[in-house]
Amino acid sequence: MQHASTLARLLSAALLSAAAATSYAADAADPAAQTQQATDDAAVLTQAAAALQQDKDLQALPLTVSSAGAGVIVVAGAAPSAELADRAVKLLQAVPGVKEVRSEIKVG
């Protein structure tokens, strides 16, 4: 019984690995799509940074934004209150092209 369970886990791992490799190969085969995605991510990142600078309360905070790719923005730094940290995240979520915001803002 335990042997069958181990075999099932190994088979699942192999299938997941094959699926990931196929997906990676498809992405790697289209450099034009990769270039376009990088260009899009850079534009979204620029707009995200500008959005933070346009808010008078947020522009004074030591916040940085970076791109994790595919429309995912990471905001890091410090905020004196949870309210300001939440405002930064909501502001970034409203930027066109942003699909997800990951917050690494330290409050306090």
Report on the structure:
The chain has a 3-stranded mixed beta sheet with strand order 1-2-3, covered by helices on one side. The longest helix is centred in the first third of the chain and has 27 residues, at 2-28. A hairpin with a 2-residue loop joins strand 1 and strand 2 (72-79). The N and C termini lie far apart (53 Å). The model has no long low-confidence stretch (mean pLDDT 82). The chain has one domain (31-107): Histidine-containing Protein, Chain: A (2-Layer Sandwich), CATH 3.30.1340.30. The protein is built from 3 helices and 3 strands. The chain has helices spanning 2-28, 31-54, 82-93; strands at 63-69, 72-79, 100-107. It is elongated. The protein is an alpha+beta fold and 108 residues long.
Write the layout of secondary structure elements.
Layout: H1 2-28, H2 31-54, E1 63-69, E2 72-79, H3 82-93, E3 100-107
Parallel strand pairs: 2-3
Antiparallel strand pairs: 1-2
Helix count, per DSSP?
Answer: 3
CATH architectural designation: 2-Layer Sandwich
Q: And the CATH topology?
A: Histidine-containing Protein, Chain: A
**CATH class label:** Alpha Beta
Instruction: Note the run of SSEs as H and E.
Output: HHEEHE
- Class per helix and strand makeup: alpha+beta
| Percent of residues in beta strands | 15-25%
Low-confidence stretches: none
Outline, from the CA principal axes?
elongated
What's the N-to-C terminus distance? 53 Å
Number of domains: 1
Mean pLDDT: 82
Within the largest sheet, what's the order of strands? 1-2-3
Number of extended strands: 3
Rg is 20 Å
Percent in helix: 55-70%
Give a quick account of the main beta sheet: strands, pairing sense, barrel closure.
Answer: 3 strands, mixed
